[in-house]
Amino acid sequence: MKIRRAVIPVAGKGTRFLPATKQTPKEMIPIINLPMIHYVVEEAILSGIEQVIFITSSGKHAIEDYFDRNFELEDFLIKNGKIKELELIQKIGKMVEVTSIRQKEQLGLGHAVLMAKDLVGNEPFAVILGDEIVRGPHPVTKQLIEVAKKNNGANVIGVMEIDPMETYKYGVVKGEFNPGSKKTMRMSTMVEKPKPADAPSNLATPGRYVFRPEIFDALKVIPKGVGGEYQLTDAINLLARESEVYAHIFDGERFDTGNIEGYLNATIEFALMDKDSEAMMRRLIKEKVEKYKIK
Ligand code: UTP
Questions:
Q1: Which residue's C-alpha comes closest to atom 16 of ligand 1?
Q2: Short-list 60, 41, 210, CA closest to 133
Q3: What's the confidence (pLDDT) of residue 147?
Q4: Residue 1 has what pLDDT?
Q5: 203 lines ligand 1 (CB under 6 A)
Q6: Are the C-beta atoms of 248 and 175 separated by less than 8 Å?
């Protein structure tokens, strides 16, 4: 079983980041000097993905341009002897094969994934949300692909333990752990954004999936769900009734960069983890702690 394609939906309006997202795609907002989407595409590549399919909407062309070559800029960098910068730019332009398809109306994540049906064809594929970054020793999509392989090519959803009071923000799963496993469970249902009292567990998905192509049949028949949108969760539930869906607790730390707090958190943490910016960030934090008397 080989997973060659990853679908990355980026068609959302990014209202939590307005007014920046009035003109700039949310996924192009940088964390230090790399746009969010760079980290996500890097995860896909490190997971063995050969083709990325962006689901876009109007005003998102900057994402496609970012992964394309820019000969004018390359020429400028050559003429000015900026070889390090040139190599960096060229590397990004050659990272991966990129295709995109428009979601003309933003009718929900389920609807966005359905747009990729013809490009994906009759093959298993990954779905990776463009505004969630997971960091750890092993790329999370790769972890899910390995679980899918171990379970006869089944569908797999990446889940993480969350604060039980925050279930209303996520798709939350219910299931039974595989015999002898504390990480992989056979999922029976998934509930979209339940109130804490109604949540079947504290295991939630931050937007990492491996699907068999049957998910498209489910996406075609689901009605509008929570929030009046076509929910991927509803299609997953339909799939779980007819075939095997596993939820796997992945290793790694997830950063929800689609909201301001998560974005600030990622910026500080990534700077502290990066050898080029660690000393700078430590100094800045120290200065601010003293200046604002933070305890
Ligand atoms: P979000 O719920 O985060 O929506 O979508 P959003 O529009 O990006 O951001 P806010 O909530 O308005 O601030 C989760 C993911 O699904 C994609 C988004 O681009 C994001 O990556 N999505 C959502 C689509 O591609 N199409 C849709 O119709 C809805």
A1: 109
A2: 41
A3: 97
A4: 81
A5: no
A6: no
pTM of the full structure:
0.95
Contact 108, 229 (CB under 8 A): yes
**235, 219 in Cβ contact below 8 A?**
yes
Beta pairing class for 51-56 and 184-192: unpaired
Ligand 1 neighbour 247 (Cβ under 6 A): no
Interatomic CA distance for residues 7 and 18, integer angstroms: 25
Q: Which amino acid is at 35?
A: P
Cβ neighbours around 229 below 10 Å, total: 17
CA 67 from chain centre, in angstroms, equals 17
pLDDT of 295: 87
State the distance from the centre of ligand 1 to the C-alpha of 246, rounded, in angstroms.
24
Q: Which domains does the chain have, with CATH numbers?
A: 5-258 (3.90.550.10)
154 backbone dihedrals φ, ψ, rounded to 5°: -70, 170
| Residue 64 neighbours by CB distance under 10 Å | 15
